[in-house]
Each structure stands twice: as C-alpha cells, then as structure tokens.
Specification:
The chain is mostly helical. The protein has one domain. Helices cover 59% and strands 0% of the residues. The protein is built from 3 helices and no strands.
C-alpha cells in the first residue's frame, strides 16, 4: 500500500534529521511504519512533534 499522507511525507523528510534521543524514541513506531511495520494511529502529541521537527528543518532551495 502506498501512503501519500502529508504526515507520512513529513516523516520521510525528518527520518534522518538530527533530533534528540527522546524525539527519536517517541517517533520510533512511526518510523517503523515507513519500513513496512504495523501502521498505528498516532496520538496528537506525536503528530504535533512531527510537525514541529519538520518546521524547524532547514529548507532546501
């Protein structure tokens, strides 16, 4: 199955970004879903964290 959700797009973009070990652990199930692991509903606080990390990434031109 191909997922084109904006949230999954953000996850793909932040996957290799530098982040704290706490953030990496919080997002571990979401990153696992990108690799074919079980897709689970993400709590709002996790979604908010994904959006925050993505917004703080340097934008490429």
């Amino acid at each position: 199955m191909t997922v084109t959700s904006p949230l999954f797009q953000m996850l793909r973009e932040i996957r290799d970004a530098e982040m704290s070990s706490v953030d990496r652990e919080l997002l571990r199930p979401a990153f696992a879903a990108l690799d074919g692991g079980p897709v689970i509903p993400l709590p709002e606080r996790v979604i908010a964290r994904v959006r925050d990390i993505h917004a703080r990434m340097p934008k490429s031109k």
